[in-house]
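Hypothesis: this fold can be encoded by more than one sequence.
Test: take the structure tokens below, design a sequence, compare later.
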């Protein structure tokens, strides 16, 4: 299947650079996955009209690390940018360095006038370095005071309030990017859903920067997905099995929740407590085993995310919906508007 089948023209001005003042103020497109019929809602709060008592929304409670650090080489004072990708063990992290050529094994880096230091312990391709950090106190507290949010490369504006790149239910620290479909929810909206008999369940998938990695092959089948850590508790698994048994719909919030549940269903045939790494790649032709619908944002052309959405609603329906989203001036990507697929 050719990657070009998932391409579309997106005017640059439709890429949302900043979040709206109110989380719920995003627009909502509702797409019927069977017929391709489209409805336009002026506010994300309209989600209340489409989810029913007994349904379950599944949300990713990962919390984004302020994982971008700006420091210097201790020996020369040369400026260095570090992006934390994954904790290897203890205080050793897989990172991306710019400019990488300045950092060799043994190089010592300093951040915040020495409050945090790191030594390079190994090198890999494309700017990858393993760093061992040294500090006093609690690492995440030091990182919180020195680090910046690692916003996607298509966002050029500074983020004034970095909590706006966290969901209101974020609690499990470890993500390199936000599960952005969840950014539309407020605590008040979640409470109203609960009062209407809609269940909410939480999973954890720590989003990797591979999410933003462009697909560089010609055909879908050639692409290798990055692996991301996921976790689902016994309580969440039990709730999802009960919802399914009673005929309720399981509606995931975001592609990360979708990939987690589909991994569980693929590996176990039902929802069970589990954790591990998943590189599941969902594209048209995939048969969904876990979910009935999904809330998601509008994704990049030729991305694995638009392929996943196309697997759920059909490529022709999705590409037509995206064409209409462009014509109706929807806001795209992380801080953009939302789509509900049912």
């Amino acid at each position: 299947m050719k990657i070009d089948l998932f391409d579309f023209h997106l005017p640059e001005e439709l890429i949302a650079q900043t979040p709206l003042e109110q989380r719920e103020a995003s627009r909502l497109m509702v797409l019927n996955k069977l017929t391709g019929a489209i409805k336009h809602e002026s506010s994300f709060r309209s989600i209340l009209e489409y989810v029913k008592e007994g349904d379950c929304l599944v949300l990713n409670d990962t919390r984004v690390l302020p994982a971008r650090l700006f420091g210097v080489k201790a020996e020369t004072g040369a400026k260095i940018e570090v992006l934390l990708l994954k904790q290897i063990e203890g205080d050793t992290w897989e990172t991306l360095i710019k400019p990488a050529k300045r950092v060799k094994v043994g190089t010592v880096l300093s951040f915040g006038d020495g409050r945090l230091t790191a030594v390079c312990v190994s090198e890999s391709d494309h700017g990858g370095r393993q760093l061992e950090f040294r500090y006093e106190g609690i690492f995440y507290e030091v990182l919180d005071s020195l680090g910046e949010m690692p916003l996607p490369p298509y966002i050029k504006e500074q983020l004034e309030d970095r909590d706006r790149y966290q969901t209101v239910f974020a609690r499990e620290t470890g993500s390199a990017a936000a599960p952005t479909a969840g950014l539309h929810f407020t605590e008040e909206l979640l409470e109203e859903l609960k009062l209407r008999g809609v269940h909410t369940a939480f999973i954890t998938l720590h989003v990797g920067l591979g999410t933003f990695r462009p697909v560089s092959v010609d055909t879908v089948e050639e692409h290798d997905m990055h692996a991301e850590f996921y976790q689902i508790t016994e309580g969440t698994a039990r709730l999802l099995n009960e919802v399914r048994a009673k005929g309720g719909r399981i509606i995931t919030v975001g592609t990360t929740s979708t990939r987690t549940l589909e991994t569980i269903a693929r590996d176990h045939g039902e929802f069970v407590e589990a954790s591990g790494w998943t590189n599941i790649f969902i594209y048209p032709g995939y048969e969904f085993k876990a979910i009935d619908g999904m809330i998601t944002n509008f994704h990049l052309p030729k991305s694995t995310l638009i392929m996943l959405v196309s697997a759920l609603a059909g490529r022709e329906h999705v590409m037509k919906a995206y064409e209409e989203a462009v014509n109706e001036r929807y806001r795209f990507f992380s801080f953009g508007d939302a789509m509900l697929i049912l």
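The chain has a mean pLDDT of 94. Helices lie at 139-146, 187-195, 234-245, 255-268, 304-313, 315-327.
Hypothesis status: open.
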